[in-house]
């Protein structure tokens, strides 16, 4: 065993008391043949494993592991994660004291092994009462560049980014929804590696950097959500973007039916993008190949398979300020302006966040305070006169939309129980009086919370999620929006 590895285990023994703990790590390395080194606040097991030849595994092979007990180390963790497949590298984040920091990254040799790890180990009880979280980890190689002059073409933006940063692979530019000769005022820049993207962001981020005389906005592009191959094999809905705003659902259906009459079940169009539903997956795949790049009403369209999104996680992403593209399980708030967006492939006219934040740096721009000067004139208003982008919680959104639909306010009923360790756990039941006589008389989440605020927010999220997937919100919001300046609708389920 080399000297570096001995330093690691010796360092562990200072924190992990007793020779048995030190011996456990030594035994793991001797059994597996993997090296273990500690550097930059993390301890690496493998990377590469013994006998590995060729480049590291591609993107999508790494998972993030959270909620790891602080006194748990590789000798316990590695055998658990080996159940899903061969580990290329296990990186455990370490405190200066020698405890772990509660999270790690596990890179497998294939994407299939990483997906299996997520399926079998997410919410796995790694110790009695201790459940770990496992999800996909992606090295982000894309930057969002905002405030780009709208007359600039892709080639000009690509050349300019190559001049000022290194490692540029490609630039993704979307045409304006209203004028296809112009861009939308932003672009996505793809770099050869996460490190290259990070170095470019560091160079461009200060706010004083200009392109063509314009101070640009720079941030990480929100990574596109990964969907497992098994799920994608069942998709029979196409996502069509870059349509003309004037193009109708009837026109889209007729164009997609040309290659096989009667293949299209229905079409749902939202501004300049649409979802085309097919009766059979085979027809959807064939239509994607035929129609991608075709012109409809003078616009060259882009066609891909729509990506299904878990409804519960999608709602959490709404509230956290992130959303996945190509999904119909979304509330759509139509807006006349083309806001900025950070997610590659996101329908650009779709405001990306339920709380109305469109900027590349929403926390700094939307959630801030301003000085109150003496003599400032204040006008009393009702919260219901505001727009939805003024609210940042599910509780407020639920109250707001009940009012907009001319429903009575939601009624909250609090319940409690006691956990095995003596904690008081809380849950709210919500009743919407306007629909209480229907098949769904109340809404109650299947999770308990330790704080009143969390319980109320979770119950509101749960209620909104179910309203979205029911006809109540779809029909109610459509009725309430007629004749109003702001249009609210729900994409077809």
From TrEMBL:
Keyword check for Cytoplasm: yes
InterPro entries xref list: HnRNP_R/Q_splicing_fac, Nucleotide-bd_a/b_plait_sf, RBD_domain_sf, RBM46_DSR, RBM46_RRM1, RBM46_RRM2, RBM46_RRM3, RRM_dom
GO terms for biological process, alphabetical: meiotic cell cycle; oogenesis; spermatogenesis
Region named Disordered: 341-362
One Gene Ontology molecular-function label: RNA binding
Annotated SMART domains: RRM (SM00360)
A Pfam family reported for this protein in Swiss-Prot or TrEMBL: DND1_DSRM
Keywords: Cytoplasm, Differentiation, Meiosis, Oogenesis, Repeat, RNA-binding, Spermatogenesis
Any one of the GO CC terms: cytoplasm
Compartments where located: Cytoplasm
Domain RRM: 61-139, 141-223, 236-308
Complex and partners: Interacts with YTHDC2, MEIOC, MOV10, CNOT6L, DDX4, UPF1 and PABPC1.
Protein function: Essential for male and female fertility, playing a crucial role in regulating germ cell development by ensuring the proper progression of meiosis prophase I. Regulates mitotic-to-meiotic transition in spermatogenesis by forming a complex with MEIOC and YTHDC2 which recognizes and down-regulates mitotic transcripts for a successful meiotic entry. Required for normal synaptonemal complex formation during meiosis, binding meiotic cohesin subunit mRNAs containing GCCUAU/GUUCGA motifs in their 3'UTRs regions and positively regulating their translation.
Name this protein carries in UniProt: Probable RNA-binding protein 46
Gene designation: RBM46
